[in-house]
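Look over both lines before class:
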Amino acid sequence: MLSTMRTHQKKILIAITFPIILVFVLYYGASKDMRQRRGESMDSDYVALVNKDGRISRSRFLRAYSNNEQYLRNNYGEQWDETLVDRLELEKNVLDQLINEELLYQAAQEAGLKATDPEVISYIETTQAKPQGRTVREWLERLAMLGNDLEEYFDTQRRSLLMTKMQRVITSNSHVTEQELTDAYRDREEKIAADYLAFEPKSYLTAVAEPTEQALKDFLESNKERFRVPEKVKVKYLQIDPKIFRGTVQVTREAIERYYEDNAEEYEVPEQVQVEHLAFFPEKFQDRVVLKEEDILSHFENNAGRYRTEPQMRVRYVALDFRQLMDTMSPTDEEIQAYYEENPQGFYSEEERKVRRIQIPLADSDSGEQKTAKRELVRRIKTDIEEGQTFEEAARQHSQDEFKDQGGLMGYRTYGDLASFGIADNVFELQPGAMSDVISVPNGLALVYVEDIKEATIQPLYAVRDKVADVLKYNKAESESRQRLSDLREQLGKQIDPTQVPQGFIVRETQAFARGGNVDEVVGEDDLRTFTNEASRLSPGQISEPIPANKNWYLIEMLEKIDARDMTLEEARERVAADKTREEAMKIAMQQAQDAEAMIRDGHGFDEISKSKGVDILDTGLLYKEGRVPEIGWNAKDFLDTAFKLTDGEISGVVSSPRGFHLIRFVDRVDARIPDLDETISKSIEQKLTVQYSVEAARSFGESVIMTAVESVVVPEVPVEEDTQQPAEEPTASEEEQPLDLETALQKERDYFLTHNKALDEAARETHPMAKLSFLETSLFAENENPEPLGQAPELAQVAFKMKQVGETYRKVIPRAMMGRPNEINDFFLVMLTDKREAHVPDIAEVSEEVRKVFLDQQAALLAKEEAEAAHTKLKSWVSDWRAGKDATAEFKLSDFARENGYSVQSAGLFSRTQPFANYGQVPDVAYAAMRTAVGECTGLIEATVPVLVENKEVARTTVGYFILQVLEHVEPDMTAYHEKERATLLNSMLNERRNAAIQDWLKQRRAQSKIDIKMKDR
């Protein structure tokens, strides 16, 4: 059975390697009648009908809905809750989008727009294949391998291309004027400075009365959707890793040659050029620079904005020695045993292999003949070993790597360890005592030999007891630290009073320090980054929540924030002198390069110029057009462009680079070429095909297990009445409805595989990973959670939630893509549903603490809002009284009001619409309101009274705060910075906005003219 399935898979692989246009015709040419014969009825269930024939099928809607929901889950992360589906009107928005697509497609057909086969293929290449680093052929092969219907895929791409063409027609008249560009730049870059009063809900938590049990129950009842426990499932799964089949698949020489012929362009070696250059680096001339005091002063005055102190802060903090506390924790034997049993995946020991390696390096500068000679050397070494020399002796004699003196011994290594050497796949396909063929690795050519294998296991408790104890100590210390500091914070109130801090804590007040700068010896280097980052988020007078770090845990009180300021000349002198010296040395280097160019024109040679100017002649070796230049680096585009334009004997003019200035002389050129198959790439192709074949073998094995299980199902005969020959009233289950015994089927297929696979010898059959394949079970998991112990397996999770009944078996093999590479298969799964828990609102006892926290947060927000509104009312009255006693030119200050009324005023500094506001990150309501005030009422320095009460919109059910602002300064943008690159970026952004608006207007009119019948059912 397995061999039969493999035969079919190979036919599929052969089919998809034909020229792409043929594949396109074969798959896309299938008629609608054929699709109907496959069971895809043209009158299938639909959710909307657009203008008579434009059916939006229910399956299409569900796919789009699922994709959009998953996108939202990923973006909201921990802030996701099920109510967002309704709040964001997901169902309506998905259906609207599908209707819009149908209207665009219909309009494209009416306009006579066409999408030819070559255009569709080019569209696929541009939008999908190339961004993934693949050819169209590889892209389609991968889609087919993943089980995609290529006919349906081409239908989708053709429709997408037609819609894209129609959008271009609609937006053809969209444009942006130069004045609009300038105004948009001005709006985006203008800045204001403001003082503000902040009323933050978290500051009012201590004023909220503790809720009663009944109040929490009522709150849960009125907010039940927020606390709803999602549906959860548990599955048994068989994980099939393609790597276990690599020792059983055969890649023939013919297959390698065929792949090479079909993909020869992939292996083309680009054109290379070798040059010499006279390098005029500024550092060579710094000793010629003599600075005068006026030079330093002038440079400082002309570049004043460059020399500023960093913003600084002073804090008082309480530290709790976490490491010392951890040492006092003593987990019991029962706790250690329980943790070990509940978290077996944490003690998984990967398979390790004892490996020896022989490596011969290849250099970029090696000629084709040199590379061939080295490959022949490695082959001779392999032959010597096969004829009796030990691998260890051969390694000591020939290897040219760090393991040579140990006879090539690398020791026991995991797959991940070996991947960094480029030999992981090769080693893990070998059995003990086996040697690889010649391997192409990043640094050259290699042979590897496996001496022994340590199987993957769950380590016994005695071996990991200390590790478990350390984890429990850490967890206990973490919980204890958080509790102690939280209690202390509540006890201290609004400030850290050293006299109120009990023994066992360290209390310090710091000198001024910058973010990332040294604090003191208690914080030290271990906690420096965490401490300064968290401190910088605080406002004066604010105390942090408990802050965990590496060495200690902290409470931090912000005492003072010191704004950045311009340095004095004496403070900046050293930096100014260094910058000015570099600037002058650069001028000298450029002048010397120009003098050398004149000497070249007068007939002087490189050697003579090198001696007279005291600069080096550097040889680059062979360079690639997009490569790195020795002594210069990667960012050397002008240098490389010039080098590749030179011909025999030609010398360039002065060329600049990030390092300095150069005169370049042509040395040699190597034209682009396709290398010989055996020269460098035969093994890499063999490895690539081995991976492909192994994936197909793994898929085939999984399908074979399912087929064996299906064949084993006994379907009861349906009794019939003798006279009517009609089924009985109570129909029995059909074959499709019968549960499958996949575990028994796995045993049969595993035995069959190991018995009949001629590529495995007797010893290998007993140790082959296939012999250890078995079904495992996940923990209960929700749809947006990772099924443990698997981790990320979205494909499996999606299937698990499709199954309805416990005991149900999914009758297809499920592929899992590699992380970050959605078109490459990592492994396969067979899945059985073993448990299913419906979504429900938990009892108050289950979520009491969570409900309490949310309740307190909301009550605190109400108190903050009330005080903000009261302060706003008081401010208006206070300003009126203040004006009455002042002359018309008097300047009102929010800080005066704050001081007289007991508020704490803070400074937001300069900020724009797109920059964070003070310590609150992106709070656009505050920024926009303040900016509207600045633009609408004042110009230049704002001296007017501008109180603005702003409530930030709900973000994940959290109110940031309520603010009263006074705008102090309005800074116009520097229009000299509006250079061509900035202009192009802004133009592109505005054009996209205009085009999107044009499409939306068109859709609005089109929908008004169309007949749309929505036939939505419950999703």
